[in-house]
Task: inverse folding
């Protein structure tokens, strides 16, 4: 982080000796930006703070990214608007069923888990077990569809007294009392019928297993919190290069999370900055100019429309991705998108699949569309996916992602064939870069899940 201090010192020196013509040019651009920019939202005010810093950095030796790095390094993370969702927490003794309902009710992808056994005077580190995501629920669902051998081995350990305590014993005990273990553990995803999800969500396992009981099997998000004095640059790097979907912000003097900043919240902030000079300089570039999409079509993870829907969730889990395109059986065109968040349709509305003999990706999409239509939920298109072209501008893509509250957009050619995908993380990664030695010993003593 010290390297950015040198940039700021050069800024101060140059600002005192700026060419009057440059000053006039800056003022002219600033007046134009003010006319274009009329938002008064908290996110836009944060963008205006970046704009003020941007305006005093008329330095030809700095690239636009270096200028943005210096600007965001000067803005504390406490300046980011507090999300009302930051107040939503899940207790460790909450059942999986109730946790899913709570996440869906608040339209959340994740929430912090409070250790109900922590003492009243516990620090924030001891008060929270971590962050549970919908992806964690997906893992649990997928575990129910895997081979019976692992379950048999667990139950054998229980019978032989190898497991005497802990979450594994709790979960195993719940399975032995469920009475329908065989029905909940088909040997392949293809064996799953629509009735499976109804049986799953009505089972004792789903209703009685606690969030804290299966902490070891959940895909927990990295629980690395920032202090309010940390900078926006640190936040943006964690959400992009270090693949964190959300970052808690804490006050060291308090035993609770003050804010949770997500990738989606950052994209919304960027959308609110339209018209500001620094944003237009960056956002008016075409995707191809920024090296987007990052992944070529042949490397994209996909699922075909006639494959079992659980194959889509399995591939997302194995590859650590949050969404997957559904491809037509004969061809390369996408007919829809399944995201990790869509698991709610399996867990919250299993009745919409009860008439299916086998739930394919295509079945899933059709049933989910009907469900959304009946509940008046907005979709980006009839296919449930958003698309753009390689010559689209970044700000247009940001506007689409933000207005539809989605996490990815697919790049297609003129014939509708897939050329790539752009995620929220991809966009943030093109906003800033990590200076050499920036984090120093920041991660010492911490082994984040995303390095695995």
Result:
């Amino acid at each position: 982080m010290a390297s950015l201090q040198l940039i700021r010192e050069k800024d101060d020196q140059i600002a005192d000796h700026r060419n009057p013509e440059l000053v006039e040019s800056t003022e002219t651009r600033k007046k134009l930006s003010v006319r274009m920019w009329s938002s008064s939202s908290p996110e836009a005010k944060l963008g205006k703070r970046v704009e003020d810093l941007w305006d005093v950095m008329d330095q030809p030796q700095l690239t636009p990214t270096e200028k943005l790095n210096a600007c965001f390094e000067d803005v504390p993370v406490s300046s980011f608007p507090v999300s009302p969702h930051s107040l939503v927490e899940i207790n460790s003794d909450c059942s999986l069923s109730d946790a899913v309902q709570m996440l869906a009710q608040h339209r959340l992808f994740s929430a912090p888990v409070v250790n109900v056994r922590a003492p009243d005077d516990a620090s924030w580190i001891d008060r929270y077990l971590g962050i549970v995501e919908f992806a964690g629920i997906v893992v649990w669902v997928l575990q129910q569809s895997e081979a019976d051998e692992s379950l048999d081995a667990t139950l054998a350990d229980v019978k032989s007294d190898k497991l005497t305590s802990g979450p594994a014993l709790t979960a195993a005990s719940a399975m032995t009392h469920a009475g329908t273990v065989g029905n909940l553990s088909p040997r392949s995803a293809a064996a799953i019928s629509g009735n499976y999800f109804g049986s799953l969500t009505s089972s004792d396992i789903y209703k009685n297993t606690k969030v804290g009981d299966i902490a070891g099997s959940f895909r927990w998000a990295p629980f690395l919190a920032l202090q309010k004095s940390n900078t926006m640059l640190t936040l943006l790097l964690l959400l992009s290069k270090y693949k964190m979907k959300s970052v808690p912000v804490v006050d060291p003097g308090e035993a609770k999370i003050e804010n949770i900043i997500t990738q989606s919240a950052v994209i919304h902030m960027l959308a609110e900055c339209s018209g500001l000079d620094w944003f237009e300089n960056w956002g008016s570039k075409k995707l191809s100019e920024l090296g987007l999409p990052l992944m070529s079509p042949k490397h994209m993870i996909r699922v075909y429309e006639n494959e079992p829907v659980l194959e889509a969730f399995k591939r997302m889990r194995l590859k650590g991705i949050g969404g997957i395109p559904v491809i037509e059986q004969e061809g390369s065109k996408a007919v829809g998108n399944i995201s990790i968040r869509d698991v709610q349709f399996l867990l919250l509305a299993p009745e919409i699949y009860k008439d299916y003999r086998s739930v394919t990706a295509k079945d899933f999409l059709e049933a989910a569309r009907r469900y959304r239509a009946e509940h008046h939920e907005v979709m980006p298109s009839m296919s449930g996916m958003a698309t753009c072209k390689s010559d689209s501008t970044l700000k247009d893509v940001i506007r689409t992602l933000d207005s539809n509250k989605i996490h990815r957009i697919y790049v297609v050619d003129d014939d509708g064939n897939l050329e790539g995908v752009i995620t929220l993380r991809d966009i943030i990664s093109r906003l800033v870069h990590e200076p050499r030695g920036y984090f120093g010993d920041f991660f010492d003593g911490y082994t984040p899940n995303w390095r695995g």
Summary: Residues 274 and 280 are 7 Å apart (CA to CA). The two ends are 26 Å apart (CA to CA). The longest strand covers residues 128-133. The longest helix spans residues 20-36.
